[in-house]
Please model this.
Amino acid sequence: MYDKEKIIPGLIVFVLIAVFPILYNRGNAGHIPNPEKPKAARECVRPVQDMRESHMQLLIDWRTDVIRDNGARYATAAGGTRYARSLQLGCMKCHDSKRKFCDECHNYAAVKPYCWDCHIEPKENM
Amino acid sequence: MDIKRRKFLKLAGLSAVAGIGAPSAFNMLLRGEVSASEGKPSGHGGGEGHGAASTTKYRYGIVIDVRKFASIKGLAGKCIKACHTIHNVPNYGNKKDEIKWVWVESYEHAFPEHSQYKRNERLHKLPILTMCNHCDNPPCVRACPTQATFKNKENGIIMMDYHRCIGCRFCMAACPYGARSFNWRNPREKDSQGRYRFLERINPDYPCRMRGVVEKCTLCVERIDRGQIPACVEATGNTGAMIFGDLNDPNSEISRVLRETFTIQRKPAVGTHPSLFYII
Model:
């Protein structure tokens, strides 16, 4: 091999640089999303796992049911909590901070739902 | 020679198919059986004169007593303010970008098919409060290619699903009353101090709209569902300037007023069957 004395150290340096981030962060899972749960509310409208997986589908279903099929605007959860089937009037009444709740996971998963293009987040200042 | 015959037969076959198919397609379009969004018949494309029975369980309407609006100064403004504050309707301060759910029209613009010749001077000064007519036979719904605007099957209110609106503005072209407005810009635009430029204050219980969708009066469907009356009607208080109710219920106050009083509608000849009635 020509230029052995340059190529081999070069390769070693390259590999070290390439794996540096992995070695540097070993044993550290990074920032794990931790959406803040409402303190006052006892239960959510669906079991937690359902909400994690399909809250977006639930919101779409509520919308279609309420405005097109004359579904009820209010419903009762399994544990008896009455809630509005609405993002602004339902979800956000308990989860009263978009930043501490929605954004936690959405930022982590790099999804950008366009809810807030129209809907108004709670306690938004003028 | 062979190839030429083959070509001829192909052409002849295609022409035959087109010749058979085209007239039936034309007929469907002419009879108005196709709506823009689907091949499905719209169910109320028939235009059976001016007083056809409604196809929904309820049909909400409003009688507007223009005489009251003329005698009580500022009443129309109060209605507009009530509506626009509740629904976060921006005020851009120019006609081009204007968003209006309820507004004041002049007599000759509201009722252009009426003769304006030698009309009483009083008529031309009347503030005609007007909004979406929530037609029983809505042309905007037929024009919408995405079914973003639709007639509610139960209460007959013409509603908007802003999630589905693609901003094509066909509905605006189709509406004979100019009741629809397009969001040319972001209604929640902020100035350098972070304040909303076009909204005086924001109602946190109602959404806003975004740039690129069409919006209009919803007859306060969210309030009706909670047992309240529309915000504009509420703003008139006990003046009796606006009477809201179910046109399908013969015992409602609005039905009684319509039976006993001479009222007119905007552009009845278009065949839209509006749900707004005017006492002039």
